[in-house]
Amino acid sequence: MTAPVFVVDSLVGARPGGTLVLDGPEGRHAVSVRRLRAGEDVVLTDGAGTGAYGTVAAAEGKDRLTVAVAEVRTEPAPPVRITVVQALPKGDRGELAVETMTETGVDAVVPWAASRCVTQWRGERAAKSLAKWRATAREAGKQSRRLTFPEVGEARTTKQVAELLAEADFAAVLHEEGAAPLATAELPASGSVVLVVGPEGGVAPDELAAFEAAGAAPYRLGPTVLRTSTAGTAATALLLGRTGRWS
């Protein structure tokens, strides 16, 4: 089994042969929950692409590890960056979508308040819901042993999503009535790919028109209709394979 991953605020100055300290909530989880002890492998990451690989030199108290660093790695930016614009699902399906997309390898998630969303983020609820999505991405990034966690942006309106689509090198709306399959779409060799996943009630006609005007054509995933909480994960997996990131 690969070494567990824990998050630190910064890895500036980390070097092979040096040591790092893991404390606070992450240190408590490592010592008191995972029960890591001296000699066990561990990875510390800043979540922004850098990881320090090493072994536990000492476990102190209930929330502190000293890690002997053997290697420091920095991931290069992917040639094709995948962003999923996720309409707000009901209940905890939003966190489920973020979790599985993160585990699959998405680079960014943008919450979208579509007109047909039953759930709407307003005021204090918006702040709490966004915080949950970001915490989910962080925990799923650790679980899936990622060094670069996906960005979870602020919720956007339809107009703001259209602006994001217009800037992409390839943009698409996942739609069951799309004329072409996403599996055969012509993708860029580098740059940004932005996909829109609509709500359970579907993308409204005026929203679809706005997105098409911005350059995002409707594409279908396959013969079945996926839930909004799973469509982004399936599409991300398809694109990671097609762009060579899973090769």
Commentary on this structure:
With 247 residues, the chain is of the alpha/beta class. It has 2 domains: 5-74, Hypothetical PUA domain-like, domain 1 (Ribosomal Protein L25, Chain P), CATH 2.40.240.20; 80-243, Alpha/beta knot (3-Layer(aba) Sandwich). The protein is 31% helix and 27% strand. The chain contains 6 helices and 12 strands. It has helices at 24-33, 93-104, 123-143, 158-167, 205-213, 228-242, and strands at residues 5-7, 19-22, 41-45, 50-60, 64-74, 80-87, 108-112, 151-152, 170-174, 180-181, 191-197, 217-220. The chain has a 7-stranded parallel sheet with strand order 8-7-6-11-9-12-10, sandwiched between helices. Strands 1-3-4-5-2 form a 5-stranded mixed sheet, with helices on one face. Strand 3 and strand 4 (50-60) form a beta hairpin. Helix 2 (93-104) runs parallel beside helix 3 (123-143), helix 2 runs parallel beside helix 6 (228-242) and helix 4 runs parallel beside helix 5. The longest helix has 21 residues, at 123-143. The radius of gyration is 20 Å and the shape is elongated. The two termini are 21 Å apart. This is Ribosomal RNA small subunit methyltransferase E. Belongs to the RNA methyltransferase RsmE family. Residues 78-239 form the Ribosomal RNA small subunit methyltransferase E methyltransferase domain.
Largest sheet: 7 strands, parallel
Could you state the order of secondary-structure elements as H and E?
EEHEEEEHEHEHEEEHEH
Low-confidence stretches: none
Query: How far apart are the termini?
Result: 21 Å
Please give the CATH architecture of the largest domain.
Answer: 3-Layer(aba) Sandwich
Estimated helix fraction: 25-40%
> How many domains, as an integer?
2
